[in-house]
Write a structure and sequence with these properties.
The protein is an all-alpha fold. The chain is built from 21 helices and 4 strands. It has a domain of 181 residues. The protein starts with a helix and ends in a 22-residue tail after the last strand.
Length: 481
C-alpha cells in the first residue's frame, strides 16, 4: 500500500474510534483527538509537500518512503492498542461521591485572596522579566523554571473561578467578584503568552473551556453553539498571528505591536499564514517527526529513557540535573544543539519506540493507556460540575502531555489537579471522597448535606438525577436564575 492509502485507513479508524470514545468519555476523546492532530499533519506534510518536509528537523530530507510507512504502521498500531485500553477504561464503576458543604464567607475570602496572590506573583515576575521575555528567552516559559510553574497553573485558577461563578446567584457578590478576577487573570495570562510567543497556553485554555462546557451541559451539542464556534475561530486566528509574529520578529512582542502588525497588512497575513501549506506546517507537523528520525536511526535507548521518565515524575524533575527524554533524543538526532533550551518538540508515542523499539506499540497502549485510566478516577463522579471541572482541567494538559512524555500525566495529578481541587473546595465548598468498596453496583451518591452529631458533614443518598445541572451561560451572566 502507498503512504496515502495508509493515511486514509488510519483516518477511517480514527473517525470510528473517536466517535466511540466521545460517547463514553469526553476527556479521553480530547486527549485522543490531540494525539491524532500531531501525527496527521506530519503525514500530510510528507505526502503533499515532500520538499518542504525536509526542513522540519535535521535529517528529515533523508527519510525514505519505507521509513514513513513503518512510522504509519507503528502509529496506527499504537492508536489501536490505546483505543482498546481507553475504551475498556470507560466501563469502570463510579469512583467518587461528592460533598457540598454549606457556604462559608471565610472560606470564600481565602479563595479570593489566593487568586489575588496568584495574580500578584504573575505580575511581579512579568514586570521583572518584561524587557527580556520573548520566544527566544531560554528561561522564560520553558522547562522547570520558577516562571513556568505559576504560568502553568492558570488553567486551575481560571476554571475554579468559572465554576464558582456558575454556582453563584446572578448579581451576587461572589459571582461579580469571580467574573472580575476571570477578566483580570485572563488578561495577565494573555499578555505573558503573546509577549513570550507561546501558543500552547492559549490553545490549552481553549480546549479546557470547550470540554468544561460540553461536560457541564452533558451533551456534545453544546460544542456547536454559535458563541463557542466564534470564540474558537477567534482564538485560532490569534494563535496563527502569534506564530507569524514570533517567527518574523526577533525579540519580545506586545499586544499593541501584534495588533499594529496585523492591521498594517492584513492581506499578507491571510495570503501567507492562512493558506493550506502554512497551516499544515504549523506547530502540529514537527513533533512526531522525532519518531521518524528515531526509526530511521534506530534510536532505542532504554538505559537513558527509563531514568528520564522516572525523574520526570518528580515535581521539579528538571532541577535534579537529569535531562528529559526529549532533550536526550534531540541531541541524538541533531548533535549541533549546544544550549540547554534548544531542541524540538517531542511526541508521546516516540517514548514507546525509544524504550522498547517495535515492542513500544504495547508500551504505548499499556503504560500511557493505564496512566490515563487511573487519571479518570479524579473526574468519575455523577456530579456534573465536579466532573466538568476536573475533566476540563485534565483536558487542558493534553497538549503538554502529547508534546511531552508520559511522566507529565503523573505530574499533572499533584501539580495541577490537586491545586485545582483545593481552589474548587474554597470557592464552592464542593469536594469528593474516595468511597469504600461496596456491593450492589455503581455508586451514585450525590445531593444535600446532612450534619452529624460530631459536626462533620455527609451527603444524604439521592438518585443520580439530583446532580448539578448548571447552565454554562450562567457563568457569564447570560442566563437568569
Amino acid at each position: 500500500m502507498t503512504s496515502a492509502s495508509l493515511l486514509v485507513v488510519f483516518c477511517l479508524f480514527f473517525i470510528v474510534s473517536a466517535r466511540t470514545l466521545a460517547r463514553r468519555d469526553g476527556v479521553f476523546f480530547a486527549f485522543y483527538a490531540v494525539l491524532f492532530v500531531y501525527t496527521f499533519f506530519t503525514q500530510v506534510a510528507w505526502i503533499a509537500y515532500p520538499e518542504a518536509f525536509g526542513t522540519l528537523v535535521p535529517g528529515a530530507a533523508l527519510i525514505s518512503d519505507s521509513t514513513l510507512q513503518a512510522y504509519q504502521a507503528f502509529v496506527t498500531a499504537s492508536f489501536v492498542g490505546l483505543f482498546f485500553v481507553l475504551w475498556r477504561g470507560t466501563h469502570g464503576r463510579v469512583a467518587l461521591r461528592t460533598y457540598q458543604e454549606p457556604s462559608d464567607p471565610w472560606r470564600f475570602a481565602c479563595f479570593i485572596l489566593l487568586v489575588l496572590l496568584y495574580d500578584a506573583i504573575l505580575v511581579g515576575i512579568l514586570v521583572q522579566n518584561y524587557e527580556t521575555l520573548s520566544y527566544e528567552t531560554p528561561d522564560a516559559l520553558k522547562g522547570q523554571t520558577l516562571f513556568a510553574r505559576p504560568y502553568n497553573l492558570f488553567g486551575a485558577v481560571f476554571l475554579a473561578l468559572y465554576a464558582t461563578a456558575a454556582r453563584a446567584k446572578v448579581g451576587s457578590f461572589p459571582r461579580r467578584a469571580c467574573q472580575f478576577l476571570m477578566a483580570l487573570t485572563g488578561g495577565i495570562f494573555l499578555v505573558i503568552s503573546v509577549r513570550a510567543g507561546s501558543r500552547t497556553g492559549i490553545a490549552s485554555t481553549m480546549i479546557g473551556v470547550v470540554c468544561f462546557e460540553a461536560l457541564l451541559a452533558g451533551t456534545a451539542r453544546r460544542l456547536l453553539s454559535a458563541r463557542l464556534l466564534i470564540g474558537a475561530i477567534g482564538i485560532f486566528l490569534l494563535l496563527t498571528a502569534v506564530a507569524t509574529f514570533r517567527v518574523e520578529v526577533e525579540g519580545p512582542m506586545s499586544l499593541s505591536s501584534l495588533r499594529g502588525r496585523l492591521l498594517s497588512d492584513p492581506g499578507w497575513f491571510v495570503t501567507n499564514r492562512l493558506n493550506i501549506q502554512a497551516l499544515v506546517f504549523g506547530d502540529y507537523a514537527g513533533p512526531s517527526v522525532v519518531l521518524l528520525s528515531s526509526m530511521a536511526d534506530g534510536v532505542v535507548i532504554p538505559g537513558d529513557a527509563v531514568p528520564a521518565l522516572l525523574f520526570g515524575c518528580l515535581p521539579f524533575g528538571g532541577f535534579s540535573g537529569y535531562p528529559s527524554l526529549g532533550y536526550i533524543v534531540s541531541r541524538i538526532v541533531d548533535t549541533s544543539y549546544t544550549e540547554t533550551w534548544q531542541g524540538f518538540g517531542y511526541y508521546i508515542l516516540v517514548e514507546g519506540y525509544n524504550v522498547m523499539g517495535w515492542f513500544g506499540i504495547l508500551y504505548n497502549a499499556v503504560v500511557i493507556g493505564c496512566a490515563l485510566r487511573v487519571s479518570r478516577r479524579f473526574w468519575n463522579t455523577p456530579d456534573r460540575l465536579y466532573r466538568a471541572f476536573v475533566g476540563a482541567l485534565f483536558a487542558m494538559q493534553a497538549l503538554l502531555i502529547v508534546r511531552g512524555q508520559s511522566s507529565e500525566i503523573i505530574r499533572s495529578w499533584y501539580l495541577v489537579i490537586l491545586p485545582g481541587l483545593v481552589l474548587l473546595w474554597l470557592g464552592n465548598g464542593l469536594r469528593a471522597d474516595w468511597p469504600r468498596r461496596q456491593r450492589g453496583g455503581d455508586l451514585t451518591v450525590t445531593g444535600t448535606l446532612v450534619a452529624t452529631s460530631a459536626g462533620r458533614t455527609n451527603l444524604a443518598t439521592q438518585p443520580a438525577a439530583a446532580e448539578s445541572r448548571i447552565s454554562p451561560k450562567r457563568a457569564f451572566g447570560f442566563e437568569k436564575t
